[in-house]
Amino acid sequence: MNILEKMLVRAKANPQRIVLPEGDEPRTLEAANIQLKDKIAKLILVGNCEVINKMAAENGYEYIKEATIFDPEKDAKMATYAHLLYELRKAKGMTEEEAARKAKDPLYLGCLMIKNGDADGELAGARGTTADTIRPAFQILKTKPGTSIVSGAFLMFTPAKQLGEDGFLIFADCAVNPCPSAQELAQIAISTAETARTIAGIEPRVAMLSFSTKGSAKHELIDKVTEATRIAKELAPDLMLDGELQADAALVEKVGASKAPGSAVAGKANVLVFPDLQAGNIGYKLVERFSGADAVGPILQGIAAPVNDLSRGCKVQDIVQMVIITANQAIK
Length: 332
Known about the structure:
The protein has 13 helices and eleven strands. It is of the alpha/beta class. It has two domains: 3-142 and 303-331, Rossmann fold; 151-294, Isocitrate/Isopropylmalate dehydrogenase-like (Rossmann fold), CATH 3.40.50. Strand 1, helix 2 and strand 2 form a beta-alpha-beta unit. The radius of gyration is 21 Å and the shape is globular. The two termini are 20 Å apart.
């Protein structure tokens, strides 16, 4: 049983309430029908009830009737959510009128449902940008204790069975932070290690990547990675983490033994932390295209409750997989 299959079993055994703010988006609705048929999660679709039911009927999505459809223009509970938003944001200058209007925004509404205890997680982004998804989560749910940064990790299922965990690795940050500081990079490493444990069910071996291995080159960009490594080890002393490491030293046992002898991570890494977003985003896409790897994500890390983002070019199966992942985050 592979990692995704294990996550599916966990999700079915512990059904979570996942809100889909883009309830009338065609791919999202098709994915919702699949999930409801397979009993993966308890779904809340945000949108006009008549529109969603009409789309479901036209496409033969018979299981949509099992979803909860929440219409922000009609549901009486909107007053509760508007008041909650006002209480959370009044110190920032939000008025009651603005809160009532903002609460109807499906992306704000999904986070308010989680904050109010009416949902366990959210998945959006088939229509909007990553910033659109993250902004309400920052304002309403905040970040987890001990972290001030949200980052994006990809589950990489590669055909290179000799690497990582039988070809499986986690890459971060590939989605959110253009140029993290050393402190932020350390937090990204710790968040990704938690994702490895709680979502993938593996013991993380974290490589802090650079174009240098253990001082083989000198540059301020390398200094940031070595400082991030020091901070991460101080914050999580029991975590198997090492840096700075070049990619080959992190992944290939012979190279790791040669360049970083005695390292518990070199040559055995299953979590790769990239020094910045350019490297991370380019890296995961190159691996995906050149090796035929399956890149699942991004999984948003660091938010106080599970909120995940989709690519606007996502496929139906991507949405199904991300609901499974969001449910697993909620179970944890």
